[in-house]
Amino acid sequence: MSIVKINALQVPAEQRETLEKRFASRAGAVESSDGFEWFELLKPLEGTDQYLVYTRWRSEADFQAWMEGPMKAAHQGGAGAGEGGERPKPAATGSQVWTFEVVQQAGPKPA
User: Fold this and answer.
1) How far is 20 from 9, CA to CA, in rounded Å?
2) What's the pLDDT tens digit per position in 38-76?
3) CA distance 8 to 41
4) What are phi and psi of 88, to 5 degrees?
5) Which terminus of the chain has fewer CB atoms gathered within 10 Å of its CB, N or C?
6) Which helix (H) or strand (E) holds 85?
7) What is the pTM of this model?
């Protein structure tokens, strides 16, 4: 079965729009990565300041290959850099990654 990676990002209210714009303008390299199955950015509506970045992968090895390749390249060097090559400050004040194995799943029943 697949694995799920959830990155819980603590985002102050004044940085929410910035975070959402950055994700909206991301390069999209994850979608063409081998083993990638799904992505969602979940915005909190109440009770927390944490956004959840949900990705689903065929295997841990596929996730690690993306982390060491396209993701690492996108977060280094000129990607997203401003004038003078400086990277913008993070919109999140903290981050925690959770890993889950999918042991059961269901979808809508056909009509």
Assistant:
1) 12
2) 999 999 999 999 999 999 999 999 999 998 987 877 766
3) 10
4) -65, 155
5) C
6) none
7) 0.83
d(CA 31, CA 66): 10
Cβ-proximal residues to 11 (8 Å cutoff; 6+ apart), any chain: 19, 49, 50, 51, 91, 92, 93
- Using CA atoms, how far apart are residues 72 and 13, in angstroms rounded to an integer? 27
Whose tokens are 């959830």? That residue is 6
Pair of tokens at residue 101: 């194995």
Phi/psi of residue 10, nearest 5 degrees: -80, 120
The sign of the CA dihedral 63, 64, 69, 73 is: positive
Q: Give the C-alpha separation, 28 to 61, whole Å.
A: 20
